[in-house]
Amino acid sequence: MPWKAVIGGSVGNLVEWYDWFVYSSFAVYFAAAFFPEGDDTAKLLNTAAIFAVGFFMRPLGGWLLGRYADRKGRKAALTLTVTLMSASALLIAIAPTYDAVGYFGALVLVVARLLQGLSVGGEYAASATYLTEATPRGRRGFASSFQYVSMTAGQLVGLGLQIVLQNMMSAEALNSYGWRIPFVVGAVGAAVVFYLRRSLLETEAYDEEERATTGAGRGTIKELLAHRKEALLVIALTMGGTVAYYTYTTYLTKYLSNTAGLAKETATLVSFCALFVFMCLQPLAGALSDRIGRRPLLITFGIGSMVGTVPLMTALGGVSGFAGGLVLSLAGLVLITGYTSINAVVKAELFPTNVRALGVALPYAIANALFGGTAEYVALWFKDAGVESGFFWYVSGCAAVSLVVYLTMRETRDAALSRAEQASGDAVTARV
Fold first, then answer.
1. What is the pLDDT of residue 427?
2. CA separation for the pair 82, 2 (Å, rounded)
3. Neighbour count for residue 370 (Cβ, 10 Å)
4. Nearest Cα residue to 322 out of 277, 256, 388
5. Cβ-contact 223, 217 below 8 angstroms
6. What is the pTM of this model?
7. Cβ of 280: how many Cβ atoms within 10 Å?
8. Any idea what the CATH number is for the domain that residue 177 is in?
9. Is 240 within 8 Å of 368 (Cβ atoms)?
């Protein structure tokens, strides 16, 4: 295993997603600072809408930074994405409140989220492509699973910091200025990772492609359209997974607090413990996919989410303590592990090197903008309308659509990601 490449890419991804998720984690504290009018659900709806805005920049970020990764290299794209994320975290940290400048503070939030969306739109593909290409065939599922290990670790760091602040600061202090602390931490962490990523080596697959071609067609929409079937496949297979992921991660704390009635501190602790176990499951599931293939895991997720979401979310809404919330949350996270642990490698294995980053980035970002980024807003909208259970059926329906794709798509585990791998595979076949 090329551990230096795996760790380097993962640590940067951790900071990226820490900054991305910490907005949602601390929204319960800063919502009133920018939207003082209305009830708690209305304030959360406003901050969730700004959260969703960031997702609609992800297709643009996927296009621009995916193209950049295919033309300038995976390492260059990874460095650029973390720079943008550092700037956006700093903007949120210094954003003025409604009492100081009216709704101008909310505008600063919107700008910061747009920058974050641009960054994350490219980060996912650059990281997925880098981790997949830097690992030999037969270990890619295991290596690429560290993308969601790092994503979850970033969220755990955010939740852990929230737990510390909740115990060290009063509720008044958190609502007043304490919520700014995690964004300062994120900005500093991204600056550190910038220097770390500069020391990474470029992948051999990309170096091979750069030597073999002039680069004129690399990372272009025209080249992506030549693989439009694979691009549509990425959108469809992402649909159910991204809705379920954001339901059981970013929305879970709010749901336990706002619907089940758990104390904010208890809801946060439930999320932290459940996500820690979820993080540890990712490499195990990724390694399993290297042995039995990607499709069995995806199909298991599709069936589980389609059938299990409604009863699980209904039961979660009625929990009264830590233990019940933890057990049910873990059940949901175990279900989506079949998707999260391998979705990055599956997408990367669908495309050739010259358009791999763009092929992963743009379709995935579109699916996230349409389904992942809006999940929390849709959930709160159903709650505000008095039909919260409608959201559970929405998640199940999205999973059902993706399940059809999982049942009909080709297996990608043995795909050759470079000419050298293709030649090696042909040689083995010839000997056999």
1. 44
2. 22
3. 18
4. 256
5. yes
6. 0.82
7. 11
8. 1.20.1250.20
9. no
Residue 424 in any domain: the answer is: no
Would you say residue 432 lies in a domain?
Answer: no
Mapped onto helix, strand or coil, the DSSP state of residue 318 is coil
pLDDT in tens, 89-120: 888 888 888 778 777 877 888 888 888 888 88
Query: Would you state the structure tokens that stand for residue 64, as one six-digit string?
Result: 């621009």
Q: Which of 415, 425, 378, 356 is nearest to 128 (CA)?
A: 356
Give Cα 205 distance to the centre of its chain.
25
Is residue 228 in a domain? Answer: yes
pLDDT in the model for residue 430: 42
Measured CA to CA, the distance from residue 236 to residue 329 in angstroms comes to 25
Cβ density class 27-51: b for 16+ within 10 Å, e for less: bbbbbbbbbeeeeeeebbbbbbbbb
The 3-state DSSP class for residue 149 equals helix
Question: Cα–Cα distance between 245 and 274 in angstroms, integer?
Answer: 13
- Domains held by the chain: number: 1
- Report yes or no: 76 and 68 within 8 Å, Cβ to Cβ: yes
Q: Residue 331's pLDDT is what?
A: 92
- Give me 94's structure tokens: 């210094």
User: For the chain, what percent of residues have pLDDT higher than 70?
Assistant: 92
304 CB burial (10 A radius; 0-12, 13-18, 19+) = buried
Q: How far apart are CA 271 and CA 253, in angstroms?
A: 6
Residue 429 lies in a domain: no
Residue 432: what pLDDT? 38
**Domain ranges, residue 45:** 3-418
* Residues of the chain scoring pLDDT < 50: 426-432
Distances (CA, A) of 91 to 16, 96, 108, 188, 296: 15, 10, 7, 12, 43
How crowded is the C-beta side of 161, counted as CA atoms within 13 Å? 22
Which tokens hold the place of 228? 């439009």
Cα(244)–Cα(268) distance, integer angstroms? 19
Selection from 121, 20, 147 nearest residue 67 by Cα: 121
> At 308, which helix (H) or strand (E)?
helix 295-316
For residues 121 and 364, the answer to whether their CB atoms sit within 8 Å is no
